[in-house]
Amino acid sequence: MSPTRSPEWPLPDFYSGEKVKEIWNVPYQERAVQAKNWAQKYQIQPAYMDKQKIALFIIDAQNSFCIPGFELFVAGRSGLGAVDDNRRLCEFIYRNLGSLTQIIATLDTHTAMQIFHPIFIVDRQGQHPAPHTTISYDDLKSSRWGFNPEISKTLGISNEFGQQHLLHYAEKLSQNGKYDLTIWPYHVMQGSIGNALVASVEEAIFFHTICRSQQAHLMPKGDNPFTEHYSAIGPEVRTDPQGQILAKKNQEFVKMLKMHDAIVIAGQAKSHCVAWTVADLLDEIQKNDPTLADKVYLLEDCTSPVVVPGIVDYTEQANMAFKRFSQAGMHIVRSTDPLHEWPNLNKTAT
Question: What's the whole-number mean pLDDT along residues 166-191?
Fold first, then answer.
């Protein structure tokens, strides 16, 4: 079957790439009217009529990660990583409005007392670790760091369990080839401005929802106090010291992969939530059907790694992860590449 040329739509007049780095209120009713007129003007059909079904997964495109000055802005080495990523992502959505069947967006959602926030851990003097401190199993074994007993009651656990869990957790991270436990600044706090989607991305998703008559799907993740949850599919550590399940896997990605001809993945950060989501997805693919990797497309210009100058730089780790995904059969593409030029995209249709 020869590739079918997919049309590209223009960018709507209201869109401004300069506003991607700002916080503002989406004028929903105005955009809804414009979206219906847009669909009529360009003869864009409802999503259920798509012969080739493409899902776009957006990982954690939230203010905390994507707006300069917020707690965990993903700057990448360029210094404007997430801002430029989201500008390209919005333009990708608008240009491919009639080709994207479904949009799913994850929302990293945290509370104060979680294992990766400073309040969870103290040193021998009762001081909390600074943001971006990494804590290894040896650090905990030597009592350099330990569980904060002051939060045991509110978490409903004993001090002993808290310490046991930290040791168990750090050991599991090491055994599973994960990063050491990182203490992050308080971020994407439940109910906060930081937790919200970037306004320009939210606007593009809303415009797609109305234009295609297809409800977007939002997937909160990361509220378990006892584990990191970089991946949208599952937590970093799945059991506590007693073998009890901390959190179950989210099978939504695998379901969507089977339901669609392709899934496209973008978001933040390339070195953490994107990398671990794709890694978990690849594990599930290899367990079920390795050929499904051919359906996965990673927008390499719509994601950036965590870089904090003078402290951490995960660029190389992120690039190595994407190289592994490519070698496993997934496709590394750019948002500016026309869909009809993407490898194997037009090979089959549902």
Answer: 94
